[in-house]
UniProtKB/TrEMBL annotation:
InterPro entries: Ald_Oxase/Xan_DH_a/b, AldOxase/xan_DH_MoCoBD1, AldOxase/xan_DH_MoCoBD2, AldOxase/xan_DH_Mopterin-bd_sf, N-heterocyclic_Hydroxylase, OxRdtase_Mopterin-bd_su_IorB, TAT_signal
One family name in Pfam for this protein: MoCoBD_2
The Aldehyde oxidase/xanthine dehydrogenase a/b hammerhead domain, residue ranges: 209-295
PANTHER family assigned: ALDEHYDE DEHYDROGENASE
Lineage top rank: taxon: Bacteria
Organism for this UniProt entry: Flavobacterium hungaricum
Protein name, as recorded: Xanthine dehydrogenase family protein molybdopterin-binding subunit
Annotated SUPFAM superfamilies: Molybdenum cofactor-binding domain
Length: 717
């Protein structure tokens, strides 16, 4: 057994004491190597290991998966069991899934970057295949028959010649004492019975019948409720408040000033604690608060984009990547493209508003809620509350949407501070208006894209972006280097085929809190870079797909072939607008073709075709659902909503002024998945970035009008 660390006697006894009770499957935190844990071998070597038990098979034969990541609709709660059931040879519905608590032993628990499957699928396959072989070996030894005469099926080991059968629960004690086999052979994809199939999600029924517990559903004994009136301006403070009217609301118990962590700064507010959410909300409405908004900039949207434009027009910025000498080529070219693209601030607008339960007592704090990054919450609260990390206990519930927003530490910290003040467990619930006006947001960004086409070929590409860098909030030291996502969304093969290319970031900062939004910077970069690539194709007088094909590799050529086939790209007619965009992020490449037509003086989206190449994959139905959801979200961000600011206050408050696309705004969508043997890529995020540029490129194809600033109104083109 490899990678066993010397640890405390307490941990040694804890692991060794597991012998004979179950088969524990986990990873070693030292190198994230997947393995089966053999407690007796650990005891023999007088060593131990920090164990992350991902999968447990007990003596009743029950299989339990400890899901170390959040489930917020993306489907990992189903996809991981589908992987386990395949190599472990158990029924999918026989796997019990529970959420793991926040714990370093799990490694990175942040649900983001479309990383759950792509980062762990090989470990899960090896882990469960190893366990299966150990169970078969235990049965073969017990029956005194050759190992190769036995096989596993539906949670049992069966002897092929005699028909003898034993369920896993009867074998785990013996299996846990065996040597752990090395280099277990995995199934070929052609032999899969479950992986690659559109199996019904195991969480669909309990979600529709109300059985599953989301954050807002969670209750613990003795819990009270709180709402917080926060300064509508970023970084403002509480000067004074009058709670008299609020305290007269039946059920309101206490009103007091608090401050919560917002990255490396704090936001002040007034908390209203009551015996119901309704009473807390009513009390909050009656508060009279005087705010101190002096000493910092009051932001206006127009000023943001003016400054960003000045930045990209007058500064070279921090270089992210450069090859060749695009600056010189562009400067010495008579004919060149020099264009500006702008993308807006966006809110996450999860259907489940923010909420969190905290219980602070006896020097510890326990958290329950829709948490996207439990390990980060542990780190943040440990630091802020000055307590050991192990005294911060974080429990995940299901999330009603996340998109990056619920990987933030402000709302758990706020709940913990209120619980400490009142010495009672409390659930803090944000209203839609709270969520809309407090941020953090996807940052608005301005891009300057320069390029030269000569004799139909790209000679140089030069990109500069200016917008908030999300990393700066967490680590100010990053201000000395370019945004690490500066080229996110840009197809990597271009770097191999275009001789002169550069990407740079021109630093831009405001007090507006910003952070990740679905597909992170690819959602904004993709619009600029793929819109510009279309304009380069037009400059070269070439078909936009043919133009891209010249610079891309064989794998993407196959994706382009599929796009052309399913959309009828080569057969498009006059008066039909077709646009294409292809982007890459989180190890997956996605192409969209959008078809538009004229309608009542505006433009109507007729259809979207999407082709995803995510390599190895689990469940095509989940992939299609994620791409469809990404397209709907992309349509909203391109043509329906944005966050704007006036005098330091967010203008949009709720769905009436941050309008979402409705069902009749959504066109037919067809999603296709490429088949290959490449490593798994992400699924939850990469389907979004191509939508906006494919749509605006289609509008140009139909009308001759270029759209370089989002959002725009489809009815007024």
């Amino acid at each position: 057994m490899s990678s066993i660390n010397n640890t405390s006697r307490r941990n040694f006894l804890k692991i060794a004491g597991l012998g004979g009770t179950a088969l524990y499957l986990g990873i070693f935190s030292s190198d994230s190597t997947a393995s089966v844990i053999n407690p007796l071998k650990l005891a023999e070597e007088a060593k131990s290991v920090e164990l992350n038990a991902w999968v447990i098979i007990d003596t009743s034969g029950k299989v339990t998966l400890v899901d170390h990541r959040a489930e917020m609709g993306q489907g990992s709660f189903h996809s991981v069991p589908q992987i386990l059931a395949e190599e472990l040879e158990v029924g999918l519905n026989d796997i019990n899934v529970i959420f793991g608590k926040g714990d370093k032993k799990y490694g990175n628990q942040v649900t983001g970057g479309s990383s759950t499957i792509r980062s762990n699928y090989k470990k899960f396959l090896k882990l469960t295949a190893t366990a299966r072989e150990m169970l078969i070996a235990a049965a073969a030894t017990q029956w005194k028959v050759p190992h190769e005469e036995c096989y596993a099926e539906l949670g049992h080991v069966i002897h092929r010649n005699s028909g003898k059968k034993a369920h896993y629960g009867e074998l785990v004690t013996a299996a846990s004492k065996l040597e752990i086999p090395q280099n277990v052979k995995l199934k070929n994809r052609s032999d899969y019975k479950l992986i690659g199939k559109s199996l019904r999600r195991i969480d669909t029924l309990p979600k529709t019948n109300g059985k599953l517990i989301f954050g807002l559903d969670k209750r613990i004994p003795g819990m009270v409720y709180a709402a917080v009136e926060r300064n509508p301006r970023f970084r403002g403070k509480v000067k004074s408040f009058d709670a008299a009217a609020a305290l007269k609301v039946p059920g309101v118990k206490k009103v007091f000033k608090i401050k919560m962590l917002v990255f490396k700064t704090y936001r002040e507010g007034v908390a209203v604690v009551a015996d119901s959410t309704w009473a807390a909300f009513q009390g909050k409405k009656l508060l009279k608060v005087e705010w101190d908004d002096s000493g910092f900039e009051h932001i206006n949207t127009a000023d943001i984009y003016k400054k960003q434009l000045e930045n990209v027009m007058n500064q070279e910025g921090l270089s992210f990547k450069e090859q060749g000498n695009p600056t010189s080529v562009i400067a010495n070219s008579v004919k060149k493209l020099d264009l500006i693209y702008q993308t807006p601030y966006q809110s996450h607008y999860c259907m489940e508003p923010l909420n969190c339960i905290a219980d602070f007592k006896d020097g510890k704090v326990e958290i329950w809620g829709p948490i996207q990054a439990p390990d980060w919450v542990q780190d943040a609260l440990s630091e802020e509350l000055k307590m050991p990390r192990e005294n911060v206990i974080v429990n995940m519930t299901f999330l009603g949407g996340g998109f990056g927003r619920k990987a933030f530490m402000d709302y758990p910290h706020e709940a913990a501070v209120i619980s400490r003040e009142i010495n009672s467990p409390v659930q803090v619930v944000w209203t839609r208006e709270d969520d809309a006006t407090q941020g953090p947001y996807r940052p608005g960004i301005t891009y300057r894209c320069e390029g030269v086409v000569n004799n139909g070929k790209i000679e140089a590409l030069k990109f500069r972006m200016s917008g908030q860098n999300n990393d700066h909030w967490r680590d100010p030291a990053t201000k000395t280097s370019a945004n690490r996502s500066t080229s996110e969304g840009f197809l990597k093969p271009y770097f191999d085929t275009v001789k002169n290319v550069s990407f740079a970031e021109v630093l831009f900062e405001t007090p507006i809190p910003s952070m990740w939004w679905r597909s992170v910077y690819a959602s904004t970069n993709g619009f600029a870079y793929e819109s510009f690539m279309d304009e380069m194709a037009h400059e070269a007088n070439k078909d936009p797909l043919d133009f891209r094909r010249e610079y891309l590799d064989e794998r993407i050529h196959k994706l382009i072939d599929k796009l052309e086939e399913v959309s009828g790209w080569k057969k498009r007619k006059k008066n039909e607008g077709f646009g294409v965009a292809i982007t890459e992020c989180f190890s997956s490449t996605v192409g969209h073709i959008v078809k538009v037509s004229k309608k009542n003086g505006g433009v109507k989206i007729d259809k979207v075709w999407a082709v995803m190449d995510c390599g190895w994959y689990v469940n095509p139905d989940i992939i299609r659902a994620q791409v469809e959801g990404s397209i709907v979200m992309g349509i909203g961000a391109a043509a329906f909503h944005e966050i704007t600011f006036k005098d330091g206050i967010t203008n949009q408050k709720n769905f009436y002024d941050y309008q979402m696309p409705r069902i009749n705004d959504i066109p037919p969508i067809e999603v296709y998945i490429m088949e290959n043997s490449e490593d798994a890529g992400g699924v939850g995020e990469p389907g979004l970035p191509p939508l906006a540029p494919a749509l605006t490129n289609a509008i140009f194809d139909l009308t001759g009008k270029r759209i370089r600033k989002l959002p725009f109104n489809l009815a007024q083109i």
